[in-house]
Amino acid sequence: MGRQRMELYIHIPFCVKKCRYCDFLSFPADESSQEAYVKALRKELAFYGEQYPQRELSTIYIGGGTPSWLTERQMASILEQVYHSFSVDSGAEISIECNPGTITDHKFSVYRKSGINRLSIGLQSANNEELKLLGRIHTYEQFLKTYEMARGHGFSNINIDLMNSLPRQTRETMEASLQKVLRLKPEHISAYSLMIEKGTPFYEEYKFDSVKQQAGMETEILPDEEEVCRITKGTEQILKEAGYDHYEVSNFARPGYACRHNIGYWKREDYLGTGLGAASLIENIRYTNTREFYAYLEEADRLCAGVWRREEEGTVTELPATNLHASVEAVGRKGQIEETMFLGLRMTEGIYRKEFEQTFGVSVESVYGSVLDRLQKEGFLEKREGRIYLTEKGRDLSNYVLAQFLW
Amino acid sequence: MSIDQSKIRNFCIIAHIDHGKSTLADRIIERTGTLTSREMQAQVLDNMDLERERGITIKSQAVRIIYPAKDGNEYIFNLIDTPGHVDFNYEVSRSLAACDGAILVVDAAQGVEAQTLANVYLALDHDLDVMPVINKIDLPSAQPEAVIQEIEDVIGLPASDAPRISAKTGLNIEEVLEQIVEKIPAPTGDPEAPLKALIFDALYDSYKGVIVFCRIKEGTVKVGDSILMMATKAKSDVTEVGYFGAGQFIPCEELSAGMVGYICAGIKNVRDTRVGDTVTNAMRPCEKPLPGYKKVNSMVYCGMYPADSAKYPDLRDALEKLQINDAALQYEPETSLALGFGFRCGFLGLLHLEIIQERLEREFHLDLVTTAPGVIYKVHKTNGEVIDLTNPSNLPDPSEIDYMEEPVVSAEIMVTSDYVGSIMTLCQERRGVYISLEYLEETRALIKYELPLNEIIYDFFDALKSRSRGYASFDYELKGYERSELVKLDILINREQVDALSFIVFKDSAYERGRKMCEKLKEEIPRHLFEIPIQAAVGGKVIARETVKAMRKDVLAKCYGGDITRKRKLLEKQKEGKKRMRQVGSVEIPQEAFMSVLKLDED
Lengths: 407, 603
What we know:
Shape of chain A: globular
Helix content of chain B: 10-25%
Number of strands of chain A: 17
Helix content of chain A: 40-55%
Oligomer: heterodimer
Distance between the termini of chain A: 37 Å
CATH superfamily of the largest domain in chain A: tm_1862 like domain
Structural class of chain B: alpha+beta
Shape of chain B: globular
Strand order of the largest sheet of chain B: 10-9-15-6-7-14-11-12
CATH topology of the largest domain in chain A: pyruvate-formate lyase- activating enzyme
Strand order of the largest sheet of chain A: 7-8-6-5-4-3-2-1-9
Distance between the termini of chain B: 64 Å
Structural class of chain A: alpha/beta
Radius of gyration of chain B: 27 Å
């Protein structure tokens, strides 16, 4: 009997400069803040290593912000801490997000030595004008250098992040950008649609256009809904023709290169999130770390296990937690079933009937019979070969479809 | 303790809307020390939240105050506040019946307005002595002398010694108080005669039962008396009598002829109390009831439905409770295919409708769906039968209809001469028939038109205000019914007729209205996963069409790492949004859409 598996996420909240569309938890910071953060992060890793001695890490994902902005010494020390505190599966997928403009030759060689075997490079667009508009700090040429450097160091599993539905983008400009990237033959491509999020400069600039886009009206600068459809359909088609498998809403991979770490999220594997604002799922409890930078530094310094108490309508629930947590929530059976559906159906292969039955002791039909029938009749969903999965139409309108699985 | 009748003054304040009636009432209450300044809140008498917010008086309110006059005597003032809007004329006439005199407040800058006249005539109808007061003399544009001249010329009231005041600053309020003593007559009536009291308002209290507001015309009433409501024949024993402090009820031993106060008699059934009825002593009844009020007729009807159909009984209870002190509100149950069980409610006007709607929502916490308001049409059937049509869905088949009639009002619009042209254009557009144009003075004209009521119930008032920059005032009364070419406009959503959206419209306007209605509904109905045709039809023939395009894309592509909670919240929000919708066939229609017809003339 093997050890219980767990995924590890490490959040690095720093970036050289905030991009204009970004609402992630990231910000520019000086060297001493970064140093203090790495120190706190290592304490957190050491602490959880002791908490979960029986666990084995199946994947590690270092995300941000821009993790590659940290010095090679800092990154090496983080990974050293991981190896020191946890047992890591010898075949573990270990990814790091890097942004062009923060990478050096030496960094890559340190990454290799530290066991990192997958890179996720934030390109977003192969069009320099679009890069400028997005507020990125690099050009396509700089990206190309980084990419070639990575290949030179022997990285054989590389993801390129792309964004579509950008201001003024059309299917044609998207295609030009995508073809450029395809020539590089990355193993994996993430193609997200731009979302206009509150609190970003893009929101101030495009909030009205964004509403129009969602309402199916004529837009000014953002592509209208019709164009967004052409863009996303085009992306899917081009990638399919190039041999990529569309395995999740926004993710495409050549056979064998789907991101295991991400799939873990959709399959509700246990994962430990460390660092500022990171989220975890452990034994059906969802945790979120504090998003306050200084609180994080302070609390990490005196990290200890405790109990999260909540009183609701007279009943007291007590859950294991630590002083870094800002929210702790047990996912009950109903929540687990809902999550299994709305997360699982994000994947093209959908959910497996058998797995559902094994986990919950009842059939999917006994819980969602009428919902499934209705969605199937409406052409959003297909049931075949022991799987339940969304049709193309269902994927286009996944918000509607997935919402049906909430009680 | 008996109170000398000659020391009582029962009066009300009447005015055009916004001329400062409620502010003057506040000032009088403040000066006579009824409230400490700590308790003083702007517009003391307007104790409904709604009234304070809108700055208008809807319900009549009464308060008793003590005034030590310069002649060395203490006087009891019973002040009754009255609404100013034309919709609430009915309330005004009720309060007037409880008074012996009226203070007429006229704005020193605006002078005599349509409602000033209407209210004065109402007061004179009730044999009240009217005492003019010129308000807002602190305004830079105030012209008190010109306004006094106007009152004398237009109304024919002596006004030369009218107090010139500013209710806002409190200037010359003293003079008003003294003139009340001098000019408003003391009540008459024999305290020893059999009890005869006029109910001018009532209110339901869950502890005390119905609280009856009345003016004692003859006789005396005290705790323990057995009383009889003369119209409903309901009998009960008096548990409490008292008068009105500011914002509270103050019990006293007895109420006798000339006094204004309240009676509680443990009346639980709200139907037993009818405003306008006469209360008498069951053991020693008076011979004849007081004349009471003439029954008012609702002019505007609409359907009101609980958003949550389980709340239907709550809506019925709420309407019942509102009706006891708002006799102008009428309702009867009806059902709609689209909206379920509800009520067809009748109102005096559109403002009255809005007020009731808001009171139901605020005071009774009901979430309502309201259909487009309409008027009562008379449908003459070929078999000679005549029906009063309040709900468009009940229109008989055209083959059974001989002809239809619609209500027409005589409208008087007072406007400054600059806007005469645009107001007349407006009236023409609304199918008005020109009657006369009269210049009351160089800059002011009185325009008279006959207008179909259904042309003015929606947004006529707003249109009037915007085309006259707020300078026009408007008053109307029902003239009668006239034959008209009317058709029923039906709306089909996704090829299904939605009964709650049907309305009656003048034949020649049907196309235009239908087209606008479709456009409006297209904006109101959110996109679905399929295409939704919206059609307007007359007699089965489609005359306009719009399409709500199908939703193409609705994906939450980005889901940052393991933050599942956020994703769940977004999906929950998606589901939540459906709750304020009405399902009609397979289409979700937002509740607001049922009022769309009201907004056809916007933009």
